[in-house]
Design brief:
Layout: E1 6-10, H1 18-28, E2 32-38, E3 58-59, E4 67-70, H2 74-85, E5 92-99, H3 105-110, H4 112-122, E6 127-132, H5 139-144, H6 151-170, E7 181-187, E8 197-200, E9 211-213, E10 219-221, H7 226-229, H8 238-243, E11 247-253
Parallel strand pairs: 1-2, 1-5, 2-4, 5-6, 6-7, 8-11
Antiparallel strand pairs: 3-4, 7-11, 9-10
Helix pairs in contact: 1-6, 2-4
Length: 256
């Protein structure tokens, strides 16, 4: 895969995410990049495809490459970009960098970031989902600020983007095939260039009810950090690697 290779980049946090911008910039230093991402946050949406709403792609500025925002899901963005927006089929699809981790099967299968990568895999393309852990106590603020971070978190973001670009290079020998595989990368919040990358399996985790009652008599999703804190993962899993401060790579094979 030479520098002329085409990489499609998407995410589920929206076109305005700083994490998306840095990923596109890092990959674009080596490859021919296109960006197509939702016009706003589409987290916890998995591989959803828009059925009844009309999708309208709009070109956006602020990237060093062609970029569009779409009023749809990450999977919509990948499918629409491949079928209608890009001049040719991309060689690799990269989704991320997600604001926060995507580890354990329940979160992986709910993740819009993974859903975007899965759409690429369904097209027979090497596909990557990349996520970076964030401190729980400032996650909401970072999310509201569209991934604007500074200091050590910014350093970690830039390293995560470069290491994702490195992984694109490692897929150089892959080609279109019949396997439906997503390479799920997770980076710790204090990652360095020398941080080990562990090969892992997704941890099994039972989350129970995801919803809590609200004041109006309904129910809303309430993320609970103790879901992971109280778990006892096997040593070869993504959750165990996260706890050790390692980066991790899990091959999600949906073709078996």
């Amino acid at each position: 895969m030479g520098p002329e290779a085409t990489v499609l980049v998407t995410n589920d946090d929206g076109i305005g995410s700083r994490f998306l911008l840095e990923l596109a910039k890092a990959v674009g230093e080596r490859r021919n990049v296109f960006v197509c991402a939702p016009d706003g946050e589409r987290s916890w949406i998995g591989h959803a495809i828009t059925r009844h709403e009309r999708l309208i792609p709009q070109e956006v500025d602020g990237f060093d490459c062609p970029a569009w925002k779409v009023n749809g899901t990450p999977a919509d963005c990948v499918n629409l970009a491949i079928g209608h927006l890009l001049p040719k089929k991309p060689d690799v699809v990269v989704s991320g960098i997600n604001l926060g981790y995507n580890v354990t099967w329940p979160m992986i299968l709910s993740s819009g970031t993974v859903g975007g990568a899965l759409e690429g895999a369904l097209e027979g393309l090497p596909s990557i989902a990349a996520s970076m852990s964030l401190p729980v106590d400032c996650f909401d603020e970072i999310r509201e600020n569209h991934g604007e971070v500074k200091g050590s978190l910014l350093d970690s973001l830039l390293v995560s983007a470069r290491r994702t670009a490195d992984f694109v290079d490692e897929l150089a020998n892959d080609s279109c095939n019949e396997k439906i595989q997503v390479h799920n990368l997770n980076f710790p919040e204090n990652i360095k260039e020398e941080t080990p990358l562990a090969t892992v399996q997704p941890a099994h985790l039972k989350l129970g009810s995801l919803f809590s009652p609200d004041a109006e008599g309904g129910y809303r999703l309430l993320y609970r950090p103790e879901w992971l804190d109280d778990a006892d993962p096997a040593p070869d899993t993504d959750l165990a690697a996260l706890r050790q401060g390692y980066a991790s790579h899990a091959l999600l094979d949906f073709s078996v």
